[in-house]
Amino acid sequence: MKLDLKPLAQQPGAVLPFELRLDLSGMEWNGATPFTRPVQVRGAVRNRAGAMELNARLDTVLSLVCDRCAKPFEREKAVEYDTLLALELANGESDDIVLLNKDGELELDELMREVFLLEMDTKNLCSEDCKGLCPGCGVDLNVEPCRCKREIDPRLAKLAQLLEPEKADQ
Question: pLDDT tens, 109-128?
């Protein structure tokens, strides 16, 4: 979706609202496809005293797999995005300003796709207190305790003997 912002740049106080749906269903993220629903994008571009400001909110529900316990779960994802737009930059480059193309247009879907992907979490947990899987027996520690027999570090074996009830009393 292209937004023609040249007319907006000429009218201080003008507002151009927008709404679109991004289909990211074919995109792979960390070996999975979490984008089972479209990303809803709503926002507006405002001309505030000659400076164009873009405000947007991106919302969807992601289908994820917990990185600790490997259970599938869904989580709502919302991203707020604000930036300044410019037809040209007066003093070189700026990371804070999005430059429009030579026709005064903004490729909104490309920008919103990039914004959303940059805000994706690198670690996904079903809950903050997820205990994960036991590396020894593979049991889900959220459901039941570990069944592994704990190996004692040989350097601490003598200390472990102090904690055991004395077998000599038998």
Answer: 888 999 999 999 888 999 99
